[in-house]
């Protein structure tokens, strides 16, 4: 009895997950998540909102709705279907952002970025972007303490990683404007980040802004003189700018 979870509400479930041979690979007495945030496998994302509190359901998940083609080392083989037994324990309104200690913000940001990487590896770039966005919200959220120098440095590093990952996902979705914005946001935090410099230079060159692209790529080359990719990009720009020989 009770209402099914609505969008934005938080749920707590008891989960068991098994392979076809009966081997148990998931056991969580109280897993808490917000459906739609991309923090759990798709079988739970799609299945739990159909349930009512107290209900026990079984979901047979084909591999795209579990751990996909790669599986999950070391216990879920590639392309493995999973059988989930799920008990919906509780449904409540989604939590308001609460001030968290810096260590908790770092941990949550890292978890969500790794979840984004999981989606990216599976080719679900929209889901990856959602997870990276949630990671940035955790890293940028209200703090209940003043981070020390080391924690502040790590927070900045995590933000730059998330923004670079956002740029990669945006490119996979064909959204170059958004990818360029993510690169520039990363460079505002870390002006000498080589990955962001290279990608920004490539994007500027694609848009025909060759002079800007060359400046950015030369700076990237100063930081990584051995990079064959940067040399190739600069060579391509030089050929494009040179007049054809008679």
From TrEMBL:
Coiled-coil intervals, chain numbering: none
Transmembrane feature ranges: none
Enzyme Commission identifier(s): 5.2.1.8
Name of the molecule in the record: peptidylprolyl isomerase
Taxonomic classification: Eukaryota, Metazoa, Chordata, Craniata, Vertebrata
This protein's encoding gene: Fkbp8_0
Organism, scientific name: Serilophus lunatus (silver-breasted broadbill)
Residues annotated as domain PPIase FKBP-type: 8-92
Molecular functions (GO terms): peptidyl-prolyl cis-trans isomerase activity; protein folding chaperone
Substrates-to-products reaction catalysed: [protein]-peptidylproline (omega=180) = [protein]-peptidylproline (omega=0)
Enzyme class: isomerase
